[in-house]
Amino acid sequence: MPAQDKNENFIQLLTESQNRLYGYIYTMIGDHSRAKDVLQETNLVLWRKYDELEEVENFKAWSFTVCKFQVMAYLRDKKRDRLLLDPELADMISETAEKENSLMSQAQPQLRKCIAELPEQNRSMIEMKYFKRMMMQDIAETLKRSLTAVKVSIHRTRKVLQDCIRSKILEEADR
């Protein structure tokens, strides 16, 4: 693969994994600023070692493994701090984060499908709330509905989406 294509491929894969990696790091460290620092270190290690990766399909697993080692190195280096995670507790949190990450990876494409299946008004409210980040009061004014009615509708729609995602994931697992 030409160097330009390989670099672009790396950048795309890295960009797609940033939220997942940051979420894992933040779960383990619990501090936004430090989590960003560890993510930057992880990105540097991934860049330096990208040539070692033979199969692009394994980028997610590989990047997560590198990330895990970076978090453990950070925790080891911070041993002098009084608030330390016990290594066993860190492993338990890591396993839980990996499982949740796997579930999120399964749920995201299903969420898109489920949103597309919503009635127009419900889809519009979800888009205003979560994609446009509008305040509930602004959504109510836009739709000319009461604030309470909008809150109830969004709550019910979230429940419908949750059930839809669960159903689709179970369907996939049965195949």
Describe the structure in your own words:
This protein has helices at residues 3-29, 32-49, 59-77, 87-117, 120-131, 136-143, 147-174. The chain is mainly alpha-helical and 175 residues long. The chain folds into two domains: 1-84, Orthogonal Bundle (Rna Polymerase Sigma Factor, Chain: A), CATH 1.10.1740.10; 106-175, Arc Repressor Mutant, subunit A.
CATH arch. level architecture of the largest domain = Orthogonal Bundle
Q: According to CATH, what is the topology of the largest domain? A: Rna Polymerase Sigma Factor, Chain: A
The arrangement of helices and strands along the chain is HHHHHHH
Briefly note the structural class of the backbone.
Answer: mainly alpha
**What fraction, in percent, of the residue positions are helical?**
over 70%
Number of helices: 7
Radius of gyration over alpha carbons? Answer: 20 Å
Tell the overall outline: elongated
Question: What would CATH call the class of the largest domain?
Answer: Mainly Alpha
CATH homologous superfamily of the largest domain, by name? RNA polymerase sigma factor, region 2, helix turn helix motif
**Mean pLDDT level:** 83
Quick one: how many beta strands? 0
> Largest sheet, if any?
none
